[in-house]
Amino acid sequence: MTAADVARGVSRLLLRHDYVALCEVPLANGRRADLMAVDPKGRILIVEIKVSRADLLGDGKWRDYLDFCDRFFWAVPQGFGLDLFENEAFSPDLAGLIVADRYDAAIAREAAERLVPAPRRKSATLDFGRRAARRLLGHLDPDCELLG
Description:
Elements (H helix, E strand, L loop, with lengths): L2 H14 L3 E7 L5 E7 L5 E6 L3 H5 L13 E7 L18 E5 L4 E5 L8 H23 L8
Parallel strand pairs: 3-4, 4-5
Antiparallel strand pairs: 1-2, 2-3, 5-6
């Protein structure tokens, strides 16, 4: 299973919870979130997708996402060994866990909530909306010149 398959299943799960997600969202700190989602109240959720054990063990950047979301989740494909997520290095007290396939996903562990400061939330939400609009415009008019 690929990261795109996991992203699709997770996006479906999030939509059922009234979160709308975008893939590959650049953050102000230079990182890129695999999935970022926003709910009607403006709460921000980031999901980091891992499809292999080596990818997970080599990830030293995930804490860089925490300042940009109210909740953070790992997402993995079905059959992925979940024992690693109990390791202190992956903060089971902070990070949630989602198990997904191409068609759906389930929350295996809820994520702790940490509120994003209002100025950062406003900036991130505005960036999210503008990015979504640019992507939609690109689908409607592939010949238009888009920045970002």
